[in-house]
């Protein structure tokens, strides 16, 4: 992670852990919510482990598809202890809690009801179901105030799929975008896995790495895999990593050019359909004996 962003998160965690008097004075529940979002492999799960290690908190990993109803969800919350991190990973995949504004009108389920896996809305099998209201109360309702010093962490790869009610301050106080590997983060990975300081690498190699890392859009997981595989051959690891990043950058450039070309073609087709061509008005066939001027028109 970029050192500056990492420091911001550490400072926020410290403020929370040392903020008992502030929360008591303001009458707020002593809890905080984090939303970690971004592409797969960018370190969301690792971030949760790092937060727990940094604060020495317990972790409760909540699997929503195994929770039968709102009452059971509330019971699980009451069983958690203080100084804990309650985690719901891939919240957009675990149960259907998608944005209500984007729901298809053909969906006859109550928009507040989101079904768990293996169940159907309105089904007769009594399948597992959790309402959106139940999850909101879990993170920011009356029952969430019972207990103290708790952190809620949600992760998702697609933040746009989540209902805005889940994202507002008070529920998810801090939104953390876990991005592709940046140059400062790359230098940290090289140090951690290969023991390379910036001064150990040739200037031209560093220049190539800095020029291509953003274009490559590789996740920390992708880069770590290359370094781990060649950790006993440091020079080879750097060379192979640079080649992999250049290959990925070229592929991204070609894919981007192709997407732009397809978008341009679609836009041109759309304009062609919306704008009638001159002289293309069709009329009924002229009857026999009508003047030639009308036929011409």
TrEMBL record:
Biased composition (Basic and acidic residues): 259-273, 284-297
Source organism, top-level taxon: Eukaryota
SMART domains xrefs: AAA (SM00382)
Lineage: Eukaryota, Viridiplantae, Streptophyta, Embryophyta, Tracheophyta
Protein name as catalogued: AAA+ ATPase domain-containing protein
Family the UniProt entry places it in: Belongs to the AAA ATPase family. BCS1 subfamily.
InterPro entries: AAA+_ATPase, At3g28540-like_C, ATPase_AAA_core, Mitochondrial_chaperone_BCS1, P-loop_NTPase
Chain spans, region Disordered: 259-297
AAA+ ATPase domain sequence ranges: 30-182
GO MF terms held by the record: ATP binding; ATP hydrolysis activity
Alphabetized Pfam families for the sequence: AAA, AAA_lid_At3g28540
């Amino acid at each position: 992670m970029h050192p500056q962003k990492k420091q911001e998160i550490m400072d926020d965690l410290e403020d929370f852990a040392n903020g008992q008097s502030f929360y008591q004075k303001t009458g707020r529940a002593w809890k905080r919510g984090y939303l970690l979002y971004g592409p797969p492999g960018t370190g969301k799960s690792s971030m949760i482990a790092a937060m727990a290690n940094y604060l020495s908190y317990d972790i409760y990993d909540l699997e929503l598809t195994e929770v039968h109803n709102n009452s059971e969800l509330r019971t699980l919350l009451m069983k958690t202890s203080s100084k804990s991190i309650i985690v719901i990973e891939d919240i957009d995949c675990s149960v259907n809690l998608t944005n209500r504004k984007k729901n298809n009108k053909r969906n006859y389920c109550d928009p507040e009801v989101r079904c768990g896996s293996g169940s159907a809305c309105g089904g007769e099998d009594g399948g597992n179901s959790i309402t959106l209201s139940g999850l909101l109360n879990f993170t920011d309702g009356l029952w969430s105030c019972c207990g103290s010093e708790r952190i809620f962490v949600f992760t998702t790869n697609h933040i746009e799929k989540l209902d805005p009610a889940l994202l507002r301050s008070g529920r998810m106080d801090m939104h953390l975008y876990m991005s592709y590997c940046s140059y400062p983060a790359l230098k940290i990975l090289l140090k951690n896995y290969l023991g390379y300081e910036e001064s150990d690498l040739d200037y031209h190699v560093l220049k190539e790495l800095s020029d291509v890392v953003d274009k490559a859009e590789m996740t920390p997981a992708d880069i770590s895999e290359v370094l781990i595989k060649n950790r006993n051959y440091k020079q080879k690891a750097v060379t192979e990593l640079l080649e992999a990043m250049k290959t990925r950058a070229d592929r991204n450039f070609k894919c981007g050019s192709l997407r732009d070309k397809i978008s341009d073609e679609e836009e041109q087709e759309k304009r062609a359909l919306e704008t009638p061509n001159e002289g293309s008005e069709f009329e009924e066939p002229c009857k026999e004996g009508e003047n030639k001027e009308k036929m011409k028109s």
